[in-house]
Structures are given as C-alpha cells and as structure tokens.
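Please fill in the sequence for the structure shown.

STRUCTURE ENCODING:
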C-alpha cells in the first residue's frame, strides 16, 4: 500500500458531472409543501427566489447533472482539491487505522462553500439577475458567495448571524474585499429582523433569522434572487464534486473506506463527501459506516423531531420534512457558527430515516481538543466546524488501537480556521464552556402541525 501523504488529481481528472443521490434511493424523499395549501410546491412557487435552472436541479430525478464549462473554469482555481493521509496524527494516536482527509481549505474562500456558490452565481447571472442575497453563520458561505458573485458580475448582500459577526470580524473584511455588502442579523433593515430585535434587543441571532431577512429582501425585488449555502437538494448536488474526487484519489492508493465521517449543520459538506460513496454502498460495491457529527448545542439529527418545518424563523419559506429543533430555536452562540442551524437537510434527514447513515453529537471542548491535536500533528488549523468530524475520527482511531483493526477512516476537512483564531484563543485560555441542547428545549419547540 502507498505511503503517500498527498494524493493529487490532475485538472484533467476534475469530475465533469455532479451526482444526484435521489436517483438511487429505495424511496424518494417527502415533497416540499406550500405553507398555505400544504400541497407540494411547484416551479412557480420557487421562481421568486431561484432561477429555473436551479429549480430544475432541486427536483430532478436524473442521476447526474453536467457541470457547465464556465463553472469548471472557476473550479480549476482550486479543484481538484488534495486528499491527505494523516500519517502524523496516526502515529501520535498509536493506531493501526489509516486516516484520510479531503481538504477543502485550498479554495479562495478557505472552505468547501464555493463548490455551490460558483454554480449558483453562474446560473443566476445567466438568468439576468443583478444581485444575490444570502445568510451566513461563521461567514464561510457569505465569503464564498461574495467571491462567486465577483466572478460573474453580480452584487452580493449578506446577513451574518450576530454572534458570529461579533466573533469573527475578519470575515466581514474578507466579504467586503470580494465586493460584498454585509449586515449583522437580526438587523433593522427588514421586518423580520426588526421583529426579533423588538422582542430581544440583545438577540445573538440564528441562521433561521438571517435566512428570513435575506429572503424578505430578495422577494421584494425582481432583479434580486436568494442563494442558500446548505440544506437544499441542488446545494448538496453541487458539493458531490468532493466525494467524486475522493473516490478517484482513494482508488489511486488502493484503499476503500470502512468509516466515513463528516460534520453536519445543514448538511452540504457531509452530503458532498458521503453521497458518492453512498451510491457505491447502495450498489453493493463497498460497505462503509457513514457517520454524521453535529454539535451537542444544536443536535437536529440526534435530538430533533422528524417533521415538516419552515427553513427560516419568520415562516417565509416552504415547509420541508426534516430533522428539526423548531424554526424559532436560537442555538447557543458556540464557535462552530456554520453548524448553528435548527434543521437538517431534508435529503440527509430522509437518508438517516432509511438507516443508511448514523449520527452522533459532540461538545465544543471535545471538538477543539481534537482540532488542537490535529493542528499540532498535521499542521493545518481546522475551522471549528470540521473539528466535530475530527473528534469522531480520533474516537474511531482510538477504538482501532484497542481492537487492533486497521480500518480506513475518511473525513472531509471542510475548511481552515485562520479566521477563527479567537475561538482557539478562547479554548486555550480555558474560557470555553460546553452548552448542550436539553429536553426542555425540545418541549418548547415551535413546529407546524402538518
């Protein structure tokens, strides 16, 4: 077996199609419903927010969707991304396991988010849209969309969750450097934001609130559309370029994963890595355990209810059947801002209900301990979000040390933490605390009765 550290693909090996898991599932996911009629939504219901090309991708049953040449041209700035073998971490753990990580921090935004930001900007520009609005948590998605809009001549307006806006000031500067405009959320610029501030002037915000603000503005202007960084089918579709590359890279070194681990907030990073491997599992060619890892403070898969709910706090979006903590749930301001979302992707929720993946929740101190361990061995400071996956990887590798099993573990290191150093400072100083979602929190969840 190979002892390589970096497994690379040539630009000529860049996948030219995205993969749609829906085509291979034993049953289709439940439909998205109109909140007024409770009937499945049609293209006209989504047209005020998305171009028809993305609406078609959202509902397609085709197994593959071709990646436009204009998108591939931008992808080539960083794709294919490297797959690393974590030799030094393995040695430090004393494990017989092999640990591989697909590193998405080489993108212009420093995360996996441009994989979908670029095509979303491209399709909107092709539809003669002038401006895109969006929300962002930790700021990685807002940064990615600002970058993507710059590539295709679009304006970009971002509402960032207040807790992360305050924690991560350099994200604001990076978004503005790429040409975007950014507001802390909740803001006084929208009815949705003002309503939250009227009720709680010190609200830390949430992704659900920020979505409401971005959707409200987009719906009011015919030349403006909304772009979402996770959750929806077309977003996860675009991210599958990660897993398709990883399949090719592991084949180069003759390894097959026994365990695949990814962090989950809305689900785009996890789905992007896992779905192509799940295709292979459903076809009987491999049989890995596929494990989603979420924060204990916002555990939609492990503690949430599988029910129809709004994707935003104000109830402006269609109803999606997903694992949810309630659309008005405001998570504690943990440092993994990208995972502070009340609901899980409907497609990942459906796959979880089918028993094709499993899920665990981790506290942030355990995750940052794993991030520090990884940084001191592998030399990359991970973003707070993938430290959740790293904590689960290390846990699995230590189990292998006890059992002697030489498992192959694969994870997605979905971004670097260079703009999250204040969070590491908080951990290193001993000031970080663990906040966990409680049974009382669930009792107060506000769920639509469908």
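FILLED IN BY: designer on duty
SEQUENCE:
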């Amino acid at each position: 077996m190979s002892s390589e550290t970096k497994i690379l693909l040539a630009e000529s090996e860049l996948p030219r199609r995205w993969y749609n898991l829906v085509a291979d599932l034993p049953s289709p996911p439940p439909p998205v419903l109109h909140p007024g009629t409770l009937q499945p939504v049609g293209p006209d219901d989504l047209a005020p927010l998305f171009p028809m090309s993305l609406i078609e991708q959202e509902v397609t049953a085709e197994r593959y969707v071709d990646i436009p040449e204009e998108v591939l041209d931008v992808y080539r700035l960083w794709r294919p991304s490297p797959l690393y073998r974590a030799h030094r971490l393995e040695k430090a753990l004393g494990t017989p396991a092999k640990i591989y990580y697909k590193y998405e921090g080489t993108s212009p935004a420093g995360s996996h988010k441009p994989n979908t930001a670029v095509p979303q900007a491209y399709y909107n520009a092709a539809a003669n849209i002038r401006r895109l609005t969006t929300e962002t948590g930790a700021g990685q998605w807002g940064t990615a969309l600002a970058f993507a809009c710059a590539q295709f001549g679009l304006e970009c307006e971002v509402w960032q969750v207040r807790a992360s806006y305050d924690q991560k000031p350099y994200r604001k500067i990076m978004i503005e450097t790429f040409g975007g405009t950014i507001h802390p959320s909740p803001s006084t610029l929208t009815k949705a934001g003002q309503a939250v501030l009227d009720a709680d002037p010190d609200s830390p915000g949430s992704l659900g609130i920020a979505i409401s603000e971005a959707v409200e503005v987009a719906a009011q202007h015919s030349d403006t559309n909304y772009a979402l960084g996770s959750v929806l089918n077309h977003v996860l579709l675009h991210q599958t370029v990660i897993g398709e590359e990883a399949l090719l890279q592991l084949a180069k070194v003759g390894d097959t994963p026994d365990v695949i681990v990814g962090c989950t907030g809305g689900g785009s990073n996890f789905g992007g890595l896992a779905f192509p491997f799940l295709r292979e599992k459903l076809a009987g060619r491999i049989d890995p355990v596929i494990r989603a890892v979420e924060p204990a403070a916002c555990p939609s898969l492990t503690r949430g209810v599988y029910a129809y709910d709004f994707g935003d706090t104000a109830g402006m979006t269609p109803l999606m059947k997903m694992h949810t903590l309630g659309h008005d749930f405001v998570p504690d301001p943990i440092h993994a801002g990208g995972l502070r979302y009340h609901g899980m992707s409907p497609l990942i929720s459906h796959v979880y209900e089918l028993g094709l993946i499993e899920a665990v929740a981790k506290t942030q101190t355990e995750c940052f301990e794993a991030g520090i361990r990884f940084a001191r061995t592998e030399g990359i400071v991970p973003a707070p979000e993938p430290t959740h996956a790293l904590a689960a990887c290390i846990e699995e590798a230590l189990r292998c040390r006890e059992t002697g099993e030489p498992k192959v573990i694969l994870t997605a290191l979905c971004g670097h933490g260079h703009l999250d150093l204040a969070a590491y400072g908080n951990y290193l100083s001993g000031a970080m605390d663990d906040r966990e979602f409680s049974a009382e929190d669930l009792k107060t969840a506000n769920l639509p009765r469908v």
